[in-house]
Amino acid sequence: MVRLKRESIYINYERINSEDPCARETLIFIHGVGHDMHSWDFILPYIRKNYHIIRYDLRGHGESDAGSEQRTVKLISEDLIYLISELNVQSYHLIGQGLGGFVGVQIAAQRPKYLKTLVLIGAPIHYPKQLGVELVRKRKELVKKEQSMIEMGQELVNKICYPPTKRKIKTLLNGYEKVSPEVYFELFHTGFGEEGTKNLQKINVPILILSGSEDTIFPPELCSASLYFNSNARYLTVPYASFMIQMDQPKITAEWIHKFIQRNNNQNKYINLPEDSYQKNLTSQIYAEIRGIFIQVDSSQSTNEIQVDIMNGFKVAIKENRIVDGWGKRKAKQILVYLVIQPSATRDELCDIFWPDVHLENARNRLRVSLHHLKQLLENNNEINGEPILGTDREHIFLRAKVSSDLLTHINGIKSAHLTEDINKKIGQYKNLLIGKTENALSGLYEEWFLDFRNWIEQQWIDMSLFLVDVYEQRKDYKNAMNYMEIALKYSREDSELSKRFISLKKKSS
């Protein structure tokens, strides 16, 4: 770690060289409010393969001085501009989480010469005012008169991580411990909306917006609303991750960022937003858009019912009437399964996933044809007159139905088991879930998103198996320990350490 002096304060930063000797580009990581540079620890091993890295502590966070001036987004943005200049960074990408995302937007709006792309993680540029005021009030209540943010941090870590592991909790609480309530609440508020949206409209580099599917504070519908402010923006939901997606899904997050950068490396022309008439109405309409999205994805009042089984063969039924034909055409199966897993998706998100190597306009046309085909498949077999099962609007695609699926049941079981504190109940839940494992949970789905998701499911099976191995080894029940070790080995793809442990268990059992 190195400390760089800027006027009366020192900024703590770290510069890490890429493992690739030919790397030319640098990723600059900007953490969220209350955290520090170590919130990126989990993702660094995957990022270093292709890029140089700069990460630092925001003013008043980690080991950086707070200074005597009032902390604002403008001031901490100037800190980063100074850091980039002093380190003579050329050809870089900004990756900001939460507050760090607002810093990234502030800098990108100035159109710096060497900035190539901007990645926003859990950074809702526009947040409803009344909800924002209430959110700040609740956090202040958690802090009360304490001089430490620890109590509030302990409350938050269980919400912003999925699941909250010991390592994640320790990393985040170390960050909260080093920031004062004064600094935190100077920077934590949701009043960046008007300025933030104006700055977002000025940005002329590609923007990737990421949020976690399990983020209950800044959910996907809220973060994806930023798409309305810049036509260069793309949005993706990271599966089974909360706000701290770089901790919950570091590999997937790193891969998606890398692919986004690679895809845009050779582009030098960007579409500008429409002018005044669009911008004047945008702010007032965004609230209605967000409310509409929430209503659309809430299918609890829908009379439609659809069953989509995936894990033991693909089967679709509406009101017990099975739909057999048509799934091999126009990516109907792939799109339906994606919408089962991710209840709402943007059009561009689907284009990026299913036609990644096709020009965006061409991909949108293909999506339009595919959605028409899928809608016909579903509606021709829906005997109940009423609202269509497949819902669409200008930006979003969603299922307007009560969805049942063996995959969702299995995943929800995994979620519940991970959160179970009673050790005996957890053992029983893990054993039952492992009975339901299959050779391939997503058979016939070969897009990269599905392969990543399949890897995530198999990793859950490995983790549950190893948990049971530990339990039975402690009980000296080596037969059961070996049985679950075999499951872990099956999905861990030639892990030498697990193989050695299996041999050790075998010796103990004999």
UniProtKB/TrEMBL annotation:
GO biological process: regulation of DNA-templated transcription
Matching InterPro entries: AB_hydrolase_1 (IPR000073), AB_hydrolase_fold (IPR029058), AB_hydrolase_sf (IPR050266), Sig_transdc_resp-reg_C-effctor (IPR016032), WH-like_DNA-bd_sf (IPR036388)
Domain AB hydrolase-1: residue ranges: 26-135
Keywords, comma-separated and alphabetical: Hydrolase, Transcription, Transcription regulation
Pfam hit, one: Abhydrolase_1
GO MF terms held by the record: DNA binding; hydrolase activity
Entry keyword Nuclease: no
Entry protein name: Alpha/beta fold hydrolase
Taxonomy of the source species: Bacteria, Bacillati, Bacillota, Bacilli, Bacillales
